[in-house]
TrEMBL record:
Designated name of the protein: HIT domain-containing protein
Coiled-coil region: none
Span(s) of short sequence motif Histidine triad motif: 107-111
A single MF term (Gene Ontology): catalytic activity
UniProt-annotated catalytic positions: H109
Domain HIT: 13-123
Length: 126
């Protein structure tokens, strides 16, 4: 895995989960990725998937991670969707990036949401 960018905060909550410093409810994991339940679920199924490597957001991940890490990550997302019986009913993937995206935890993650019809992506007020 490459050296973290200077912007990466190694004390963010997901880095602490990866180091085992705080608990998380594991869903499944793989060589380069880890999945756990969101502590404040917004849907009946709300799983967070993160790379083990130190990447701040989607752009950082896709810019610096190896092809092996990137493939591992998306394969794990797909595996979870099947294991949580979200196929064929469907689900939503969300990745918040930066201030406009409302990203709170500066370690790349996707939210995998499902278990009920989720409605529109955002309220219609622009
Ligand atoms: P984001 O706004 O995309 O950065 O989302 C961060 C998510 O992390 C939120 O949905 C939080 O509920 C979730 N979260 C924060 N701390 C924890 C934790 N210790 N375990 C599980 N999920 C967490």
């Amino acid at each position: 895995m490459p050296t973290p960018t200077p912007a990466y905060d190694p004390n963010n909550v997901f880095a602490k989960i990866l180091r085992g410093e705080i608990p998380a409810e594991r869903v499944c994991d793989s060589k380069h990725s880890f999945a756990f339940y969101d502590i404040s679920p917004l849907a009946p199924i709300h799983v967070l998937v993160i790379p083990r490597g130190a990447y701040t957001d989607l752009h950082d991940f896709l810019s610096r991670a190896s092809d092996e890490e990137i493939l591992d990550f998306w394969k794990l997302v797909d595996k979870i969707s099947a294991e949580q019986s979200l196929i064929p009913s469907g689900f939503r993937l969300v990745s918040n990036l930066g201030p406009d995206g409302g990203q709170e935890v500066p370690h790349f993650h996707v939210h995998l949401l499902g278990g009920r019809p989720l409605g529109p992506v955002l309220p219609s007020n622009r």
